[in-house]
Inverse folding.
């Protein structure tokens, strides 16, 4: 039964990768939104521990007391590629304050991701984490990529964004700035 599920999972991932490639061929420059949906009321964020590209472990609990933007993404996802520089810009704008960004890659290995990141105009300076079996993604209820969550200092999901976002848009910057202590 487990082997059958693994085969089905593999076929689903191949289909999603193919769909991502077809979408990229149709629209290599997808429009990004800048809205974030508040979670009313905020709900507890599932805890996790994932490794980064250097094998260092990061736990969500390590960031308690800070605002954390968690971005679920993959290299085959055109909106993910487009939003990555704006994530870096947002991180650079607020990293000196109580704000962090964690990018959680789905299903892919460090060599592929490192190569992909090297092709971007801006190499992200925030942690790139790996969710190889998508368990963290499942715990967060991610149904499509990219999907992002903003976690408050108490460890609750305060905002959600499904689809690509322009994270350095003035409205997003204003929202984050208003959340952070002075």
């Amino acid at each position: 039964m487990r082997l059958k599920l693994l085969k089905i999972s593999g076929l689903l991932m191949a289909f999603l990768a193919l769909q991502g490639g077809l979408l990229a061929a149709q629209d290599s420059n997808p429009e990004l939104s800048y809205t974030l949906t508040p979670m009313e009321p905020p709900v507890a964020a599932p805890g996790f521990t994932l490794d980064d590209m250097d094998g260092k472990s990061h736990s969500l609990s390590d960031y308690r007391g800070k605002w954390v933007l968690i971005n679920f993404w993959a290299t085959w996802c055109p909106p993910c590629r487009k939003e990555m520089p704006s994530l870096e810009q947002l991180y650079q704008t607020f990293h000196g304050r109580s704000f962090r960004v964690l990018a959680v890659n789905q299903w892919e290995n460090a060599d592929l991701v490192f190569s992909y990141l090297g092709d971007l105009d801006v190499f992200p300076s925030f942690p790139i984490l790996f969710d190889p079996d998508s368990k963290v993604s499942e715990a967060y209820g991610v149904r499509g990529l990219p999907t992002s969550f903003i976690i408050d200092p108490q460890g609750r999901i305060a905002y959600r964004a499904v689809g690509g976002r322009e994270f350095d848009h003035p409205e997003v910057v204003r929202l984050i700035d208003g959340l952070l202590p002075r």
The domain at 33-179 is CATH 3.40.30.10 (Glutaredoxin). The two ends are 54 Å apart (CA to CA).
